[in-house]
Specification:
CATH architecture of chain B: Orthogonal Bundle
CATH superfamily of chain B: MetI-like
Strand content of chain B: under 5%
Radius of gyration of chain B: 25 Å
Structural class of chain A: alpha/beta
Number of domains of chain A: 2
CATH class of chain B: Mainly Alpha
Helix content of chain A: 40-55%
Order of helices and strands of chain B: HHHHHHHHHHHHH
Structural class of chain B: mainly alpha
Oligomer: heterodimer
Shape of chain A: globular
Distance between the termini of chain A: 82 Å
Strand content of chain A: 5-15%
CATH topology of chain B: MetI-like fold
Radius of gyration of chain A: 25 Å
Number of strands of chain B: 0
Helix content of chain B: 55-70%
């Protein structure tokens, strides 16, 4: 008897141990059914399609797309979208998704940023979504957006955004230092890199060293990057385009001449320049004349940061937007469905809704998705979840329809009356999607540290190139690495 | 008869089973799997992988990136361990001293231990903000005239390394001190009383009574700190850019392994080879510590001068 109870208790302990590690994995897919949607062909119309139901796991690197997830539930009330946000500060998101793909914890839909979307499109982890292609013609999705999501003739990811870049400047500083804040005249003063440099010198002189032309050299990386003639990797070897060399020398020149503030991008000091609260260590106030930011930078970065945290300083209305010295594109979020997901129909439907649904894109761009709107669908929506008007969408059809609605929007007020949407619409068709490759993220991230050392003078240019090439070699065991541009 | 014996023994095994099974699944299996992976070119982004022999290991030694990471790890660990054990020893001697009788020892102990409760991620993020170019440290230093102009702290190799060392020291010396104090309070008081009667000085008591009896505890601290130090990751990862910036000066073994794992295609084969080498390096060093700090009385039969004294104490310990 005694022995039996020993055995029993051990068995109980064992089963608890196994139960603890076994359960969470199997739950989610069990309740998902994909039968109802199977009969439905590519119908992009408004009426709720058949009766979609099930649970969909969506992973993303910001909370932005959660708004669409809630709206999707509004369209399909029986669907439950489980939204997981993992930040990508030091590449956490990329690593986490990679590790989860193909396992039982794999999400059904993933958001992919421009820097690593190609990695995924080139892999065999994303499902073939070619059947959604006819919709891109209907909506006239910008070709570059589709091109990025396509590899070997198979389109696997779509985007709701197009992300041409722009140049934002402070009207007050332009008037003070350049004598005008007229968009055409200022554009002429920064029309190319040489003129940009001349203007930078003028601004420094006018502010007696307290005015910087840009917050950091880092934000000029994307303009140079977009103007390369070749992608990073061609036929298995690394290509160091002359534009990259030019960028490095340009960034050094900006730092050495004191044309940039020396802050690090995406840190306190960089943001402080946007609301005029930047102070150096002595307490002397400093001003930043301009920021290189793309479409999404206006609603997500510049306008939210134009007011200082204590509310004492506000630069709203003092900004203007022009093309700047180089046309470029920066970032963007693509969505793809994972191959082998048990909810593939639902996942496809979600991708279609997010990126290729006229009504959704219109609502997204025009500020229909307010917090109240989302709360009516899902009362548990967080209080700060909402989509303000102004994100630039990927469909030309939608863009043409809504551009005029921005003539007197809050963003137009922010830009002193300028319709940013129209300006982006003019720049969007020139965007080139062919330069992106699956290895961009790792190659570009490896450059940051050596470049920072070169800019602050702890490394020579030759040492910087060598350190960068070493780092790239370490991450890409099979890549052929050329000689450094400067030795 | 044999069957009965087996039955009796098997009860014991059954009780051990949960741990053994847990260890096999979560301990041994990953180690063996890592070892197998290190001989392949497996990546997370493709389903097939090939056996590549020692290619991953050869690549690690093809440039100085791996050796630099090993060097960084050792340097940061040693620079943090020496003051950590030194200060912890000093404080625990003071706190357990029968002569000084410091008041509210519990409060002090709790205060010194507190930093250990902080989340490493939060501490690293805090230091990153404090030492930013436009950060508060620069503002204070310049306004108080300690510096003539703002300094790029996190772009200086030695400042950044120093910060990592400081954070590691600051969060761990309290923990070490508590373990040491536990060890010291278990040393029977009569030994010290006898020594005092014999006219021993504080230093003599420390070196002849405290240290020898503390040896098992010291070995424990040494080995756990070494294992922890060789696996240092969160603080250096989060303090700068996650790649051991500036100039890879705080790129530790584990950061390098993580970088390989997190690289574009997720080269888990290459990452495993780093893990395997760290495993062997740590094992050899830990065994070395056990060997050099082993109880030498065990092999030396010749009674030393103080042997009577020592024997007594060992007996009372066990």
């Amino acid at each position: 008897m005694k022995r039996l109870s020993y055995i029993l208790s051990v068995l109980v302990a064992l089963s608890m141990l196994l139960a603890a590690c076994g359960t969470p994995v199997t739950e989610a897919p069990a309740q998902a059914t994909d039968a109802p949607a199977a009969t439905d062909a590519p119908a992009a119309t408004d009426a709720p399609v058949a009766e979609l139901e099930g649970t969909l796991n969506v992973w993303a690197f910001t909370n932005e797309m959660k708004t669409m997830a809630v709206a999707f539930q509004g369209r399909h009330p029986k669907v439950n979208v489980v939204y997981t946000m993992i930040p990508m500060t030091n590449g956490e998101y990329q690593t986490k998704v990679k590790a989860a793909a193909g396992t039982a914890d794999s999400p059904d839909v993933v958001a992919l940023e421009a820097a690593f979307v190609k990695e995924w499109v080139e892999s065999d982890l994303l499902a073939d979504l070619n059947e959604l292609l006819p919709l891109t013609e209907e909506l006239q999705t910008y070709p570059a957006v589709v091109e990025v999501g396509t590899y070997d003739g198979v389109t696997k990811a779509y985007s709701y955004q197009a992300t041409p870049g722009a140049f934002f400047f402070r009207r007050s500083i332009a008037k003070e230092c350049l004598g005008t804040d007229d968009l055409v005249e200022v554009q002429a003063m920064v029309a190319d890199m040489d003129k940009f440099t001349e203007t930078a010198a003028k601004i420094k002189e006018c502010g007696t060293g307290d005015y910087f032309t840009v917050g950091t050299g880092g934000e000029m990386f994307l303009p140079f990057l977009s103007n390369r003639s070749e992608p990073w990797i061609v036929d298995g070897s690394l290509v160091i385009d002359p534009k990259i060399v030019e960028y490095v020398q340009f960034a050094k020149m900006m730092r050495d001449n004191g044309y940039e503030s020396g802050a690090t991008q995406w840190t306190e000091g960089w943001f402080a320049g946007m609301n005029d609260t930047l102070k150096d260590a002595d307490g002397t106030p400093k001003k930043v004349f301009s920021y290189f930011l793309p479409t999404w930078g206006l609603p997500y970065v510049l306008s939210p940061n134009a007011k200082s945290a204590d509310g004492t300083s506000d630069t709203t209305g003092d900004w203007a937007m022009i093309n700047g010295p180089l046309s470029y594109q920066w970032g963007g979020t693509w969505v793809g469905a994972l191959e082998g997901s048990p909810n593939s129909e639902l996942a496809k439907e979600f991708v279609k809704f997010v990126a290729l649904d006229e009504e959704n894109l219109t609502n997204w761009a025009t500020g229909v998705y307010t917090n109240e709107y989302l709360k009516a669908i899902d009362p548990t929506t967080p209080d700060d979840q909402a989509q303000a008007a102004g994100d630039f969408v990927s469909s030309q059809v939608v863009v043409e329809k809504i551009t005029s609605s921005f003539d007197d929007s809050t963003l137009a007020t922010f830009l002193g009356g300028e319709n940013s949407y129209g300006a982006f619409a003019a720049a969007a068709p020139s965007v080139n999607g062919a330069l992106l490759t699956g290895s961009d993220d790792a190659i570009q991230r490896a450059l940051n540290d050596p470049l920072a050392a070169y800019l602050s003078g702890t490394m020579t240019e030759a040492e910087m190139w060598a350190a960068w090439l070493d780092a790239v070699r370490n991450e890409f065991p099979d890549l052929v690495i050329p000689a450094a541009p400067v030795e | 008869m044999n069957l009965a014996k087996l039955k009796r023994n098997s009860t014991g095994y059954l009780f051990l089973a949960p741990f053994i099974i847990g260890f096999l699944i979560f301990g041994l299996y990953p180690v063996i799997n890592t070892l197998t992976l290190s001989f392949t070119d497996a990546t997370l982004m493709s389903k097939s992988s090939h056996f590549v022999g020692l290619a991953n290991f050869k690549r690690l030694f093809a440039d100085d990136v791996f050796m630099r990471a090993v060097g960084n790890t050792w340097l940061i660990w040693i620079l943090n361990f020496i003051p950590q054990i030194g200060i912890a020893l000093l404080l625990s001697v003071l706190f357990t001293s029968a002569r000084l009788k410091i008041k509210a020892v519990g409060v002090w102990r709790a205060i010194y231990f507190l930093p250990n409760l902080l989340m490493p991620a939060a501490v690293a993020a805090l230091f990153n903000a404090l030492f930013a170019y436009y950060g508060p440290v620069n503002q204070f230093m310049v306004r108080a005239d300690f510096l003539s102009e703002a300094m790029r702290f996190l772009e200086s190799i030695w400042v950044t390394r120093g910060l990592v060392v400081f954070i590691q020291w600051w969060t761990w010396f309290g923990q070490t001190m508590i373990i040491l104090m536990a060890g010291m309070t278990s040393i029977p008081l009569p030994l010290y009383e006898a020594a005092m009667v014999d006219g021993a000085s504080v230093w003599q008591m420390f070196t002849r009574i405290t240290l020898p009896l503390l040896k098992p505890i010291l070995i424990f601290i040494f080995v756990t700190s070494l294992v922890g130090g060789m696996q240092m990751f969160d603080i250096p990862f989060l303090l700068t850019d996650g790649r051991g910036s500036p100039l890879s000066s705080i790129q530790t073994n584990n950061i390098l392994m993580y970088m390989k794992f997190a690289s574009s295609k997720g080269h888990i084969g290459a990452a495993s080879s780093v893990g395997v080498l760290i495993f062997f390096m740590t094992s050899i060093c830990a065994l070395g510590i056990f060997y050099f700090l082993r109880d030498k009385d065990m092999d030396v039969t010749k009674p030393a001068k103080k042997s009577l004294f020592k024997k007594n104490t060992t007996r009372s310990q066990s």
